[in-house]
Amino acid sequence: MATEPEPQSVLSPLTSAAIFLVLTVEDGGEQTARELLADLPGLTRAIGFGAPDGRLSCVAGVGSAAWDRLFAFPRPADLHPFTPLEGTRHRAPATPGDLLLHLRATRPDLCFALATEIMKRLRGAVAVQDEVQGFKYLDVRDLLGFVDGTENPVGPAARQAVLVGAEDPEHAGGSYVIVQKYLHDLDAWNALPVEAQERIIGRTKATNIELDADDSHVALNTVTGPDGEEQDILRDNMPFGSPGRGEFGTYFIGYARTPDVTEQMLRNMFLGTSAASHDRILDFSTAVTGTLFYVPSADFLDDLPDAPARGSAVGTAPPPAAGSGPVPAQADAPGPARPASDGSLGIGNLNRSTSS
Ligand code: HEM
């Protein structure tokens, strides 16, 4: 029997520290990016070896616009740019990203050391679109104060939910990941009575018990397949922020075997369902980024396919995915937003996206 391709460490247990790096590859930076991808497992081992309890890992994802620039190899079947959504009150923007590096460890210093080494190698070859250092907060709570991650699949169910299989044999062992950076209006949230917060989330705050409410965040994100079976994703959300700057956020990251499942959840949240016009978590949380990546298997990184012949990659990426209510995708547009000179994302005021 053929052995299953080894996945990257997408299934590694949740840790207390993470760094999320979203990068775009500069013209001419492709070879350096390829070398980094090939060296990543070795770099991670080198830095993590001396601290085995630190469980250092790094998952690399490749964005739609970058695939044909980096590899002369068939595209993963479901790789496309993030589909932006325009709801009646809230929007999910698409933002640029050619590479995602998701670093995890039980110690922030290990993530920091590996990120430093990675960026040293990539300097000049990439532009940093976003960097977030996340931490586990209290007893695994988000900054809204609720326990986050309870309903994640585990064991064989997690593998089944997250890893590409026979449906795309050339990419078996891979995964799709969507990231979004949310900023919270904590003053407004904390002004709500706890019972109102619990109805919005769909779980009790102190005891984390699920409530029966078909318009809650939990209900809107309970997605079923054609046979009524639940469709899971694997989340490793991380709080981040800066009390000094009054910034409080959740970095959403969801791995799945097909991006369809996460995209359905996002449509439920932003465009609504028969039970709710939108997810009320969004009245207090603004999505300021949104990018989709494909995570190749570890075997793929071990033995990278050839680079495309120069000039052959132009125009091979598909158009943005169709979705209900999307606005034009910007992720693959020429000349993606480069970081502003102040080091910010350069996309203006990130505090609120509500139009009313
Ligand atoms: C502001 C950002 C977000 C926050 C603070 C947040 C927080 C939470 C919390 C507290 C829960 C309940 C406990 C749990 O099962 O984890 C939950 C559940 C869940 N969330 Fe989120 N979430 C956010 C964004 C998202 C997004 C963007 C998606 C999907 C696209 C998502 C998908 C889910 C799913 C699938 C569940 C489990 C539902 C079930 O019980 O089956 N979340 N989230």
From TrEMBL:
Q: Which domain of life is it from?
A: Bacteria
Q: Which cofactor does it need?
A: heme b
Annotated GO MF terms: heme binding; metal ion binding; peroxidase activity
Q: Which residues form the Dyp-type peroxidase C-terminal domain?
A: 140-299
InterPro entries, from UniProt? Dimeric_a/b-barrel, Dyp_perox_C, Dyp_perox_N, Dyp_peroxidase
Cross-referenced Pfam families: Dyp_perox_C, Dyp_perox_N
Regions annotated as coiled coil: none
GO cellular component labels: cytosol
Q: Does the keyword Metal-binding apply?
A: yes
**Sequence segments annotated as region (Disordered):** 308-356
Keyword Iron in record:
yes
Q: Report the residue ranges that make up the Dyp-type peroxidase N-terminal domain in this protein.
A: 8-136
Write out the biased-composition intervals (Low complexity): 308-329
Q: Which UniProt keywords apply?
A: Iron, Metal-binding, Oxidoreductase, Peroxidase
Q: Span of the secretion signal?
A: none
The record, for NCBIfam families, names: Dyp_perox_fam
Q: Which family does it belong to?
A: Belongs to the DyP-type peroxidase family.
**Protein's recorded name:** Putative peroxidase
Protein source organism: Actinacidiphila reveromycinica
